[in-house]
Structures
1.
Amino acid sequence: MNFDYAFFRDDHGYYLKTDELREYVELINGESAEPYLWPSLNVSGEIVYRIGILADEQNRAADHERLEISLRAKDARRKDFVPLKKEVRTRQIPDGSYTRYELEGVPVIDLQQFGFVGPGLGQFLDDALELRNEEVFIIDLRSNPGGLTSNIEHWLHRFIGDWAEAPAQVWVQLRTNTTRHLARHSKEGEPRWMIDSLFPVMQTGWSRVRSSSGTAPISNPTKVVVLMDSLSASAGEGFVRYLRQIENVVFIGTNTSGIAGDPVKGKLPNSYIGTHWSTNLKLDVESGEFVDREGIGFLPDFWVQSEDALDVALKFIHHYGMGDDN
């Protein structure tokens, strides 16, 4: 993604404001510009478009370190090269703390992870009842590494006033004694009840194929702005999955981690080398089609650099009057 160039859009196409001129995009890399332009927000919170690509195994970012763009202004044409930069984030060790505060009249909630227990977890659940009466508020899920999905389900129950069914998915789990042993070993020092609940004795092999149907869209009059980035993972990413079923929710930031297989961390018993592996295969179901989010995650509605997301979200809310009474 390149966040230096901000393009606007009118009936004639995408354009770059240059002095008093509008330079319209004709081609990017010799192709239609549409697949390369992503909705974003500028520093004033106004909707713009940025040049970028979504990299995967077939479309590696290294193959597109810069893109050629062809621009037209009246009778003049020119070409330029736009460099791309992959977001690199450094995860801070979360302490599970929860914070609720207000910025520029907008409530903001920030829970660093969805653990069993943690400072403010009870307050996080209680605040859902108050937040449902707000005009607009922000949920900050940047760098949230996950935790218990049940905490998300309880929060949503209080916020929307009903139990939300799990989003539409199909999944299957591979259970092995090795996985269970290494995972339990990595949790030494934790309460025994927690270890037993996380890693119970099960029959080994593939589980039955399970599915959920989802309940979208869920009515919600409160405007919710969700901040996310490439370090939003596991249950943090699961919260995004649930929130996508709810009306009036906007997602700002970058794509989430794409860790959809319930990853397990552990250490080898002799070398203590850290390992990280998945036990599930999961596919989302959207419009009757299977969607594999491994390594891609969920895409935001508006692409914004993670470190700027909160400031830009506030500008976005004020620019479009989202906090005004209707």
2.
Amino acid sequence: MNVPYVLRRGAFLSAGAILPILLLQAWATPGQAAAPLALRNLAPRFGISGGLFLPTGDLVNSREPGESLQMTQLTGSSCTGQLSISPWRRFGLEMSGQYISSGVRLRATIDSSFSSSTDNPAHIVATTLKLVYRFYSSSDMRITLAVAGGPALVHRSGKIYDTETLSRSRTRLAAGLGLTARRSLGTATFLRVDNAWAFFPYSPRQGIDTRWQRDMTLSVGLERTLTY
């Protein structure tokens, strides 16, 4: 049985909204003493988080005499996996993969006498490699704040991107930036909150102006040190 797109997307968003609430409760619960800094830095960490995808601009906003075309990436939900290592006290490396369930709203107007608006399912997959700088650590190393930046690859998929207007720009190289707050919940488990951005130019085809995209993701998740 086919489930309407709006219902499927609404259920996905509802499920994604529960995880941050439960994890934020864990943030306020004191954990055990953190592992020694030297041991944590030598071991990689794996994390998974969920949250909201918040695009801040239109993909296309073309206006010509007698007609206009607007395509907007819709707010969605995200799932992100991170693998990080911190061989130095202040600096580290992190690689992440992200899946975003979203949509594209298409609005077209011709001679002010015809106007249509449709929502189309669409998805985004992004990978990022970042250099991480921890600019704040509590005295017991249980709470840290870090900024990160590096190259990202953003790929968009969905039937809407099969059209002639959008097919030329499915995959784009982007600049990824982020801010991470991390709190220790035990000897090897951390709660993390992320605010990540992706910046890249988007030009679907010749004749349509390039527009800079500024996609934001807010997420909450758990991270575990991989011991060996």
3.
Amino acid sequence: MSRKIVGLSLIVIIFSGLFIQYQIRAPRRNYSDYSCFYKAGKDILQGKNPYIKDSEEISTFKYTPIFALFMAPLAIFDQRTSASLFFLLNLCAVFFIFKLSRKLIFYKEISANNEFLLFVFVSLINFRFVLNCLHSAQVGLFIMLAVVFGLFFISKAKNAIGASFIGIAVMIKYMPALFIPYFFIKRKFKISFLILVAIVIYCLLPGLFIGLKYNFFLLKELIPHISSTSLGEGAFLNEKMQSLWAFPFRAFTGISSFSATLFTLCIFAILTVFIIISNKKQIKKEKELFTNCLDYGLVFILIPLFNPHGWIHNFVTLIFPTMLVIYYLMVCNFKDKLVLSLVVVYFVLTTFGSPSFVGEAVQTILERFSIVIFGSLFLFAAIVKIKFRSMLSMDKEN
């Protein structure tokens, strides 16, 4: 009981500190990306077009009508109160991501001390991504929470509920749609179909609240708006874009858009092979869930790597694969030195490249060399190593 009290006390202290810091930091930065979310909520309430950017906005709204509708209740408040509520919701998302990920990943219990250390390690390793998401008032944590909720319900054979959660994640940002072909390839056709149905429903649902005509107008505006603001070559040349779509433009001087796209698609195909490969033999249910989690971890890594806008905050999805790897290391008593080494390299490349350690100038140089991309690929390699070891051990059991 005392250990739980200590843990909860630490959570309260850390979350309170982050909230106080946000109260000081956010107004100075015009509430970062939240300003466009807040405006979108206002626009929905007033029947305006949220895809038209104001001169004062830092970024433009690139999300679906249902997300704008979600922002409408928060837009009732003044911007500071609204942003504070959004920040608190993000903190709650962090808590539930850890809780649900634990339920999915742990196929056998570990000691309370090891579990506490696991949460500490995962938090430290991914702190840069979480903090960036919180500071920029972004939606990556909500997206991940929705996906983890979906996977949790799918693990309980409640496919319709699980698909509805993954569908809402796709409606916030489209990259979680990678789970649709994943389930299709794994011959779980019903889940893929249910996610697609959920997406269609979520596209139409705002019409019940804002009117069908207004909703269809917004849907018609959305795709051209995203393509014109997110998919230009200029965005890929930004060194802060830690995306495999941006990587070839920085790595190969003068490369054409066609060649860069072909390069990225080849990398995607190679990485996807490691997800497709699986053991065809019958295995115990708890081991099956863990092997599924290994695949989920790989997909979670692909989500930010192949997001055309590979901002640092998108890498919060690496919380799940990091927890997966640290849990595996604790179960095997850290005997797998290769996996341990890969995780250490991942931590060094992604964490020590932040301005807190190296300063803004060096950070810019490291981002130009796509250091977060390479760090994420080391984590990907660690999970592939675990996956192949798990497949071999299952062959021996059978």
4.
Amino acid sequence: MLEKMRETSFGPLAGTLCVLMLILLILYGTGFGFHQEEVSSWNLMLHHMAAVGLLVLIGVHTWLNACKMRKMRDEFRAMLKGQDIKHHDNRGFLIEQLKQKSLREMCALFNMDGARLQESLRVRHIYVKDLDENFKAIAKANQKDMYELWILILREHVEHASS
């Protein structure tokens, strides 16, 4: 059950909600104890720890939302100006970095055999004349997207590593 929860995107959310519910339950219980005039050092310490935990959760939540909002604001400004979005995690950044890389460099990076990669690409209807050709030239000659070519090489690397 826990493994299935971790695989979904609700895993971290469920954990955070459980912690939040626990903190609120502790605050409610200790607050009710204060109302019943059952004040002890243990009760007071537990109440303070739960309050600090709640403040930490609020701080982390606020910081994460501020980061998301900042990213969305930057993307919106870039769209209005008609510019590329400058994030290191987007597809354009990856393609820009790969343009001048040769297939031989990729084989060295992934510790793969160049002839095997060339044959694997040929099976997928991507023809490479020379291992020293760069990504841009290979993609243009085969009328493919450079990102698609990158995905095929990664796939071959994963298949090669798992066998």
